[in-house]
Amino acid sequence: MSAQSRSTLEWQQLDSAHHVHPFTDPKALTKRGVRVITRADGAYVWDSDGNKILDGMAGLWCVNVGYGRQELVDAATRQMQELPYYNSFFQTATPSQIELGQALAEVTPPGLDHFFFANSGSEANDTVIRIARHYWHLKGKPNKRTFIARTMGYHGSTLAAVSLGGMPHMHALDKVLLPGFAHIMHPHWYTLGGTLSRSEFGIVAARALEDKILELGPDNVAAFIGEPVQGAGGVIDPPETYWPEIQRICRKYDILLVADEVICGFGRTGQWFGSQTFGIEPDLMPMAKGLSSGYLPISAVAMNKRVFEAVNEGGLLAHGYTYSGHPAACAVAIANIRLMQREKLVERVREDIAPYFRARLQELADDHPIVGELRGSGLLAGLQLVKDKAKRTIFTTEDDAANKCRDLCLDHHLIMRAVGQTMVLSPPLIITRAQVDELVSKVKIGLDLTARHFGLG
Ligand SMILES: *Cc1c(COP(=O)(O)O)cnc(C)c1O
Predict the structure, then answer these.
(1) Which of 200, 239, 322, 336 could be 196's S-S partner, Cβ–Cβ 3.0 to 4.6 Å?
(2) Cα(401) to centroid of ligand 1, in Å?
(3) φ/ψ (deg, to 5) at 126
(4) Mean pLDDT confidence for 115-137
């Protein structure tokens, strides 16, 4: 049945009768009624009332090449006609799995040339946990099992990925998490830096890793994991001193380093991977979202030589998913990578559109009374909302300025996301300068109305 065949009200009634939504407060949903998105093209989506809305989030940080790219659709169609499914267990492979490994090796940083496939970022991180522990077992250090991650880190929504992540409201759902996970502070200078300079704070935040390793004992720690730029935690780009110090500490204590590239990967920060932007040399690199631009679900874990060689010598790898390397998803991912290469999308982000996007947002942030700082990297941006700019006073949860601003932006046909009291943007990499102008002027309207609401504008 086509989207046009039902009214918005009918969709809403059917939805609330049968559909349980992720990351949604059911009461708030019932009050407002679900928004039904029926089609999309380029950087825009349309809802069931026919409104054209600029998608400032590229779906959930994933539709990097934009909507409506026929070659991704064709790649899926061809693959599904020829071979809709076969698995990669038990010494079998399909051509698109094999060729995706080759395409990925072209774009990942040197030395990360071996890939395990899964279907989501969460599954990729569960894979990382199992492989890192397997690695240390094979190396004769079976006690190296604990993962160190960061507060406000996001690594997915399976029980292991939630335990790995540092999201308080997600931890609260479980009450009890899995053992074997520890957390250190997130490197957010604006809220935690106090009187330190940015670069001093970067070192202090990184040294929290060393303290935690010494507390747990280096012989008990398997790995450190971090997003190059924390996404769902509020777009936190660390000071430039942070990652080099983390890298040094991991090497000193022989701890595996994992860069969670699920958001930063595939051009978002102006390089193929955030690790390249921030000078990280990870041992393991989970990726998802932009890998297929969200057209079909797929994820991968890249391993360096050290990890790959151990795993390769280590006997049966008793791990995998029915849809690991789903042929159609692999075909779409290959088409996505080839399209990004042909259109030079990563170079475009780095040299043209991200500098423009950031300059426009920086002007807005500098001038606006309720914006404390602009954060992020490339086409990943966070605007910190504040009640008092000079004193760096952030709106409280009760004020909830960010959700107010998000709703106001949506009324003006822009999708932004609110994380804590930060407004977040992650538009498709194909966004044009004219569309950036449209986006910034809509953000400004949302901010102005929010400021007025709180008597600050
Ligand atoms: C979205 C995300 C995940 C989880 O991916 P899913 O596909 O939703 O399981 C993991 N890590 C990071 C950094 C993410 O942003």
Answers:
(1) 200
(2) 26
(3) -60, -40
(4) 98
Superfamily of 35-65+344-453 according to CATH? Aspartate Aminotransferase, domain 1 (3.90.1150.10)
Rounded Cα distance between 61 and 156, Å, is 13
Q: What is the mean pLDDT of the chain?
A: 97
**Rounded mean pLDDT, 400-404:** 96
Which pLDDT belongs to residue 32? 86
Amino acid in position 87: N
Cα–Cα distance between 263 and 285 in angstroms, integer?
A: 12
Q: What is the mean pLDDT of residues 50-56?
A: 98
Mean pLDDT of 116-137: 98
Q: How many CA atoms lie within 13 A of 186 on its CB side?
A: 24
pTM, two decimal places:
0.97
CA–CA separation, 125 and 164 (whole Å): 9
Check residue 377 and give its pLDDT: 98
Strands 112-118 and 417-419: unpaired
Is any atom of ligand 1 closer than 6 Å to the C-beta of 446? no
CA of 232, closest atom in ligand 1: 15
Query: CATH assignment of 70-342?
Result: 3.40.640.10
**Residue nearest (by alpha carbon) to ligand 1 atom 13:** 262
Q: Which residue's C-alpha comes closest to atom 5 of ligand 1?
A: 121
152 close to ligand 1 (CB < 6 Angstrom): no
Q: What is the CA radius of gyration of the chain?
A: 22
Which part of the chain is CATH 3.40.640.10?
70-342
